[in-house]
Design a protein that fits this description.
The complex is a heterodimer of chains A (443) and B (358). Chain A is mostly helical. Chain A has helices at 2-20, 23-43, 46-80, 82-116, 118-152, 172-175, 179-208, 212-248, 250-257, 291-297, 319-348, 356-364, 367-384, 405-441, and strands at 157-159, 165-167, 269-276, 281-288, 387-389, 393-394. In chain A, strand 5 (387-389) and strand 6 (393-394) form a beta hairpin. Chain B has 358 residues and is an all-alpha fold. Chain B has one domain. The longest helix of chain B has 31 residues, at 2-32. In chain B, 52% of the residues are buried. The chains are: A mainly alpha (443), B mainly alpha (358).
Chain lengths: 443, 358
């Protein structure tokens, strides 16, 4: 039983982590492509259209990866989490079915037209198809986060005698206080990934002295979108999302921040330190006094409950993992704002393309928004443990009762092998597109 | 309400099989009959712009199943664990076979992805046929041994096969001689369907050969159908029970035979779309007849201890099902609009689409 639950969780964690590498780029990138196409319609400068076309190639590849790795996600609710599906399907089935009906049909129908239909449709209609693809992918994100939000903060339900959750208020699913901050936080974070990728490829071209004009355009677009989105991720969206955690999952908040004991006179903010679960303390701690109380309640001496105030039975299952995920996300987010701010300042001083070290930094930053996004999701998911539906249904009660550990390990290993292959193919092909560059891809 | 969602779900699954079915069939044709680069291009052009949207019907149907019949979704997805995960892997191979082939112009690269696409399509057609066989045959719900349930009444788990390959064993496997027979019918039927789609959507030099293939496979299909009808009573002693109660339901078997017999005239059809029309009728009629014959069962129980899973004991709560109708009607209208646009833009022959050329 223990093994089975472990493999079920590993399989979901592995497949969702791999899957989300792709949508986090395509959601943000679709907006940037629509922007390029719009700039082209306004200015009639060919370079914008060529830029849009170049990024469409990368988008298409990422999108295909997102689709093929996405279907296993929907299936796994039933295959590996049958009990959870049975008990909550009447509610989360709503939002998941809506995702299929509203966004997947929209995306898949217009993606083909967007990729192959420029000549057939003319530029204006082509822009419209691009916009519809953007709309579909953001709608998909919305419905997934609506599902996620219900698990974090269940609303609009009642529980029947047989333990089943049934919906009694459809509207509540969408006015869930957890939903909007999380959704905007996630979408802004997706735009951070897309901006950094666009800026990094641009920096690569500029530093390499290849496709120079495109390189400059990509760096410029990337850093402007990057600065705005990096700020929005932190404030107001990240701030609001964290306040939801304080309000609805205080024990999770204590674990995220690494607060083992309630502090009199206000809580410090921990920058670095390693959770020591034996002594219930942080080793090698570097912290700034009272900041956390201020950030949370705008009062220097506000009390924040430490882990000591809660029953261990409701502690997040993996406190160090949760703590690290959260700190890595916040740490990287802070670095993103700093780097993008410097880049934008240099852009306005018209020195950005000569400031080599910023360009190198932008290039090497490429993997980090992916890490930050992933850690953000780990914070949310580890933070919800040991629950599937917060405070109501434990993860251990949600797995499929008849699927044995051996079968789950078999499919987990299969997924690992298959995704390794997919990842290699993806890197090879995306490398080929980047190496060819926008100029050769024009026609 | 249950009946409404049952009809919606079954219709979506039928649409999925008709649409993605021609993709699988085209993949099988690609594997066995496409010899030249030109033939292969014709086939991938004919399905390239569509397969992704077609696959969405599976995902959307899965979503509707999850939402309207959550208990069935939980029970069947965990019970058919291995074949479902394998279908996922095959769908991935089918997709990357199609999408990656044109990315690099190299004989070895193309050969690998051609085979991946073809073999995945073949196995998918086989698996979906076997799946239908499992639904008709039923499963050992609650995993009863010697009259005692080992699990809750609606849960089960099936290995891929048991050593006897018998559909009447106490502990069944996914693959037995009955489900395998339906799997082979699935392969033959979808190969015909895919060939018809290629004839419909291309001017390929293969088309004349494919007409012969359709005719010959249709003969094979007749034999298989007769065999399956002869053995059907072993699995389901009383398959006409619903039809006799509501004679209008005979319209489905009628559609099935109309589609099947019509295909024997493939060589004389005056329009290239007729073959596809008839194989669509065949698939629709066959699927509808099968699910109607076991209605209101969704998954029969092979033991006498635990009851069948039906649309009534599997459905979600009333409020959720009712509120779902509102958004579903809006969504399905939008879907109809998207499909009209898509098929208008890509109407007629597709030989020059240039799918997969980068």
């Amino acid at each position: 039983m223990e093994d089975m639950l472990f493999y079920d969780r590993m399989q979901f964690a592995f497949t969702i982590t791999f899957h989300y590498l792709f949508p986090q780029l395509t959601m943000g990138l679709s907006l940037i492509i629509v922007y390029f196409k719009w700039k082209f319609l306004k200015s009639k400068l060919e370079i914008y259209n060529d830029a849009a076309k170049f990024w469409m190639k990368i988008f298409a590849l990422n999108f295909a990866m997102g689709v093929v790795t996405g279907i296993p996600m929907e299936f796994q609710f039933g295959t590996n989490w049958a009990k959870f599906s049975e008990l909550t399907g009447g509610i989360i089935g709503q939002t998941l079915a809506m995702e299929g009906m509203f966004s997947f049909f929209l995306e898949s129908s217009f993606l083909g037209l967007f990729l192959f239909g420029e000549k057939l449709l003319g530029h204006k209609l082509h822009f419209v198809t691009g916009f519809l693809v953007f709309l579909g992918s953001w709608a998909s994100g919305f419905l997934i986060i609506a599902t996620h939000s219900w698990m974090q903060h269940p609303v609009g339900y009642e529980i029947l005698e047989n333990g089943k959750f049934v919906l009694n208020n459809f509207g509540a699913l969408f006015s869930n206080p957890w939903l909007w901050p999380s959704y905007l936080h996630n979408q802004a974070a997706s735009l951070v990934t897309a901006s950094f990728v666009v800026a990094a490829i641009g920096a690569f071209y500029v530093l390499n002295n290849k496709h120079f004009e495109f390189g400059k355009l990509f760096v410029k677009t990337g850093v402007v979108f990057g600065l705005i989105s990096s700020i929005v991720v932190a404030f107001p969206t990240g701030d609001l999302a964290a306040k939801n955690v304080v309000k609805y999952q205080p024990v999770t908040f204590a674990a995220m921040e690494g607060i083992f004991e309630t502090e009199d006179g206000g809580s410090e903010i921990v920058l670095i330190g390693q959770p020591n679960m034996i002594d219930k303390t942080l080793d090698n701690k570097i912290a700034v006094p009272n900041i956390l109380s201020f950030l949370t309640y705008q009062k220097w001496d506000a009390e924040i409950k430490g882990l000591n105030e809660f029953d261990e039975a409701i502690y997040p299952t993996n406190i160090p993992g949760l703590y690290y995920a959260y700190h890595i996300m916040v740490g990287l987010g802070t670095i993103f704002i700093g780097l993008m701010l410097l880049a934008v300042v240099q852009l306005f001083r018209k020195k950005l393309y000569k400031t080599k070290w910023i360009l190198w930094a932008l290039l090497f930053m490429l993997p980090f928004p992916y890490i930050a996004n992933t850690m953000g999701w780990y914070t949310a998911e580890l933070g919800r443990q040991p629950w599937l539906v917060y405070n109501l249904l434990r993860t251990s009660a949600g797995a499929s009762p008849t699927v044995s550990a051996g079968n789950t390990l078999f499919t987990l290993l299969g997924f690992i092998g298959l995704y390794l292959l997919l990842g290699l193919l993806f890197l090879m092909l995306v490398g080929k597109i980047i190496n060819k560059g926008p100029e050769t891809l024009k026609h | 309400m249950e009946l409404f969602w049952y009809i919606v779900l079954m219709t979506m699954l039928a649409v999925y099989i008709i649409l993605d079915g021609y993709d699988f069939g085209a993949g099988i044709i690609h594997l066995f009959f496409a010899k030249t680069e030109k033939d292969k291009k014709a086939i991938t052009n004919a399905i390239g712009p569509f397969w992704d949207a077609n696959e969405v019907w599976l995902i959307a149907a899965g979503g509707v199943l999850f939402f309207a019949f959550p208990t069935l979704y939980a029970s069947s997805f965990s019970g058919f664990y291995l074949p479902l995960i394998m279908i996922l892997w095959l769908l991935i191979f089918r997709a990357i076979g199609l999408e990656l082939r044109g990315q690099i112009h190299n004989k070895m690269w193309e050969a690998v992805w051609d085979k991946a696409f073809g073999i995945a399509s073949l196995l998918l057609a086989l698996f979906f046929g076997i799946a239908l066989g499992n639904v008709v045959r039923g499963v050992n719900l609650g995993m009863v041994t010697n009259g005692v349930s080992a699990h809750e009444a609606h849960y089960f788990f099936l290995p891929l096969w048991n050593p006897t390959f018998s559909p009447q064993a106490e502990h069944l496997g996914i693959i037995d001689w009955f489900t395998l027979l339906l799997g082979i019918i699935g392969v033959v039927a979808l190969t015909i369907h895919g060939a018809n789609w290629i004839i419909f959507k291309t001017n390929s030099s293969l088309n004349n050969q494919l007409r012969k293939v359709v005719f010959n496979l249709n003969v094979v299909l007749s034999v298989l159908i007769i065999v399956s009808l002869l053995v059907w009573h072993i699995i389901e002693p009383n398959p006409f029970h619903n039809f006799l109660k509501h004679p209008w339901l005979f319209v489905f078997p009628l559609i099935f035979f109309l589609g099947h017999l019509g295909l024997f005239r493939i060589k004389t059809f005056t329009k290239d779309s007729y073959g596809f029309l008839f194989s669509s009728l065949f698939l629709f009629g066959g699927l509808a007849s099968t699910v109607v014959s076991i209605f209101p069962k969704l998954l029969p129980s092979t033991n006498t201890i635990n009851p069948d899973l039906t649309i009534y004991n599997m459905a979600a709560h009333e409020y959720g099902l009712s509120v779902g109708v509102y958004w579903f009607v809006v969504a399905i209208i939008l879907v109809a609009v998207y499909f009209t646009i898509q098929y208008k833009v890509f109407k007629g022959k597709m030989d020059d689409v240039g799918y997969g050329e980068h």
